[in-house]
Design goal:
The complex is a heterodimer of chains A (about 230) and B (about 475). Chain A has about 230 residues and is of the alpha/beta class. Chain A contains eight helices and twelve strands. The chains are: A alpha/beta (about 230), B alpha+beta (about 475).
């Protein structure tokens, strides 16, 4: 995977470069925003990491120029500011994700994987672990084998996969179902989730319960409890 | 700090000292004038009464055989001499100033012959003071001279009149002094009320409150004082703002190198290294984490300070939405650490700043995850109880002994002997934010022996309609974990 790292702080850029090397990724660095659009168009980067606070044109401006030129490369913004307005502004300018300094490198890497995976899948496709969803055909495969899902089960799993790694309130899932297929209750959501769990397990996917709140779908890695 | 300046008496006392003595003098002078005005005409009318007697006596002088003669019947004389209080004397002198009737003692007094109608003067008869009125009476043919009639009485009536006038004067004086003093004191109290109000306002003000002082209905004389105080407040505000800005800037500037430090430490842990280095690298990583969290909390403190400059209780806040936002933010981290983070959310509404309340709850959850140990069960609750909107975070960790609880709410204090690494600001920030919203923090025992932190905020008044939970924005909390 090829990464463009736009960061003016040498110390951080060095450390990030070495960390991304450990993943076997190729990292190119620049300290300024002006050449970013050209670099992204000329070379096949899989993702760009863009610091907001750059000398010359800042990260927001750089991002806008890139998107104006129709370049769709996933872009993850870094900022030292955690004000909510900044977050919203970044995402509105066409950033795919947003990370506030100081962050854990593991988190950066995880988010980069998700973004590039999503980009590779193309629009209408979602995948995590051994699970692949085709949003257009409304079909799901676990390790290449298609699994049979009811309409509502499909809605639930698509909703959760789209928000993988994030806690989702039961009410939120119920609301999204109601729009699609009529009223649903929290109890019903619990039934769907308990039915989905064993079917997703072979793909290395767990749906964790957040007690009194909802669920969190993630890849069963070494970091969480078994 | 210099010693407070010595207080030089009170304004009230100074005004009284300048107002009351002149007032007393004026009142005393007024009383003297009044006494004179009362006593003098009364005494003068007594002289006239004596003169009237003299006139009557003058009618009784007859001129025949070339000499003046005076005759009075015993009844008339008795009538003239009758008086309740005083002894009355009279003497009738012929033109040669020989006594032709009346008292020799009176005739013997050396009194100049009256030049006009009558003349009053004071004399002594037999050791007692008397008032004498002498009148010239034309009793002889022209060229033979005039007779003189003297009438006198002792001073008892006159003294009585003077005494009464004096008493009346003194009573008026006392009344005036009392009324005037009362007016002055009342006027002072009324006029100095804005100053008292100002003093009360400044005395009752919280240390964080640097807003301008306002006194309703303050007279323009107080305006310069108010202006000076407010100018001073403005300077203090400016200084506090500069300090907060410095704090925020410093925290911002630290973030990038801290990320680098953290990344280097992470890399060192991941890369091949001698086993003996492992504990050091782990400590390095933890220290970097702690520094990251500290910078975040410094920023937060700067923001809390900023919010303290305005009334925060303006925006309705749905605590369920706040807790939901924190659930989204903290559930992944709790799962990562093997903690069971759960929620029991009942409707609860308060007034305030959502991002601050979110930070408050974030700090509580963060603390619970950090201190309750691996595999801890942590429960976040919201509820309304009486006039309070409650936010609670309970864990089943080792808990905190009651004696060690109060210091936890102070800045830079951590639970003693705790293996976890906190910044020492977490609960202090919770305390600051709760206080800013008019709430209180209580550290209680959890049912399972752990710690239960309860924040009681003022409930949003019922009249306001309950709003559905807003779609929670992500926790504006540290992403350092």
């Amino acid at each position: 995977m090829r990464v463009l790292l736009v960061e003016d702080d040498d110390l951080l850029a060095d450390a990030a470069q070495r960390a991304l090397h450990t993943q076997g990724w190729i990292v190119d660095r620049t300290q300024r925003g002006e050449p970013v659009a050209l670099s992204l168009r000329r070379d096949p980067y899989d993702i760009a990491i863009l610091d907001v606070g750059l000398p010359g044109i800042d990260g927001f401006e750089t991002l806008q120029r890139v998107r104006r030129e129709g370049i769709l490369t996933p872009i993850l913004m870094l900022t030292a500011r955690d004000a909510v307005e900044d977050r919203v502004r970044g995402l509105n300018s066409g950033a795919d994700d947003y990370l506030v300094k100081p962050f854990a490198m593991q988190e950066l890497i995880a988010r980069m994987r998700t973004l590039t995976q999503r980009h590779r899948d193309g629009p209408g496709m979602l995948s995590i672990g051994g699970l692949h969803l085709d949003l257009g055909k409304r079909s799901a495969t676990v390790c290449g084998a298609q699994i049979a899902l009811s309409g509502r089960e499909w809605e639930v799993i698509a909703f959760l996969v789209e928000r993988a790694g994030k806690a989702v309130a039961k009410a939120q899932i119920a609301d999204s179902l109601s729009e699609a297929t009529g009223a649903a209750t929290d109890n019903l959501i619990e039934v769907y989730v308990s039915r989905l769990r064993p079917r997703l397990a072979p793909a290395g996917i767990v749906i964790r319960t957040v007690r009194g709140f909802g669920y969190l779908l993630e890849e069963a890695g070494g970091d969480g409890p078994a | 700090m210099t010693a407070p300046p010595e207080l030089r008496g009170s304004l009230r006392r100074t005004l009284l000292a300048w107002l009351l003595p002149p007032l007393l003098l004026i009142v005393a002078a007024g009383a003297a004038v009044q006494y004179e005005l009362t006593a003098r005409p009364a005494v003068a009318s007594l002289d006239h009464a004596l003169d009237d007697v003299g006139l009557v006596l003058g009618q009784m002088i007859r001129w025949h055989d070339g000499a003046a003669h005076f005759g009075i019947s015993p009844e008339t004389e008795a009538a003239i001499r009758t008086d309740n209080l005083d002894t009355v004397y009279f003497a009738v002198l012929d033109p040669q100033r020989r006594l032709i009737g009346g008292d020799a003692a009176l005739a013997a007094l050396a009194i100049d012959a009256p030049t006009s109608d009558f003349v009053g003067s004071d004399h002594l008869i037999g050791g007692a003071g008397v008032r004498v009125v002498a009148r010239r009476v034309a009793c002889a043919p022209p060229g033979a001279g005039d007779c003189e009639v003297r009438v006198a009485e002792t001073m008892a009536k006159r003294q009585l009149i003077r005494r009464q006038a004096l008493l009346a004067g003194l009573a008026a004086l006392a009344l005036l002094v009392a009324a005037t003093s009362a007016c002055v004191v009342l006027a002072l109290r009324f006029a100095l009320r804005p100053l008292d109000a100002l003093a009360r306002q400044i005395a009752h003000r919280s240390l964080d409150d640097l807003r301008d002082v306002r006194v309703d209905g303050a007279p323009h004389e107080v305006a310069p004082l108010l202006e000076s105080i407010n100018r001073l407040f403005a300077r203090v505000r400016e200084a506090a703002r500069a300090q907060r800005e410095f704090l925020a800037n410093a925290a911002h500037q630290l973030r990038t190198p801290l990320t680098a430090l953290r990344t280097e430490a992470e890399l060192a842990v991941l890369e091949p290294h001698p086993p003996s280095m492992a504990p050091t690298l782990q400590r390095l990583l933890r220290a970097a984490d702690r520094a990251s969290r500290l910078t975040h909390q410094m920023l937060l403190l700067a923001r809390v300070g900023e919010s303290a400059q305005a009334d925060v209780s303006v925006e309705p806040v749905d605590l369920v939405a706040v807790a939901s936002a924190c659930a989204r933010d903290w559930a992944p981290r709790a799962i990562e650490r093997g903690a069971d983070l759960g929620f029991e959310l009942q409707p609860a509404q308060t007034l305030g700043r959502p991002f601050l309340l979110q930070e408050m709850l974030s700090n509580l959850i963060d603390n619970a995850i950090k201190y309750a140990g691996a595999k801890a069960t942590i429960t976040v609750r919201t509820a309304e109880q009486g006039e309070h909107a409650l936010v609670e975070v309970e864990d089943n960790g080792p808990g905190v002994p009651p004696a060690a609880r109060a210091p936890l709410l102070e800045r830079f204090r951590r639970g003693g002997g705790s293996p976890a690494q906190g910044s020492g600001l977490g609960l202090a920030i919770v305390q600051d934010i709760a206080a800013l919203h008019g709430g209180e923090v209580a550290l209680l025992d959890a049912a399972g022996g752990g710690l239960r932190v309860r924040v009681a905020l003022p409930r949003r008044p019922r009249a306001a309609a309950l709003q559905p939970p807003a779609p929670g924005s992500a926790c504006a909390s540290s992403s350092s974990m």
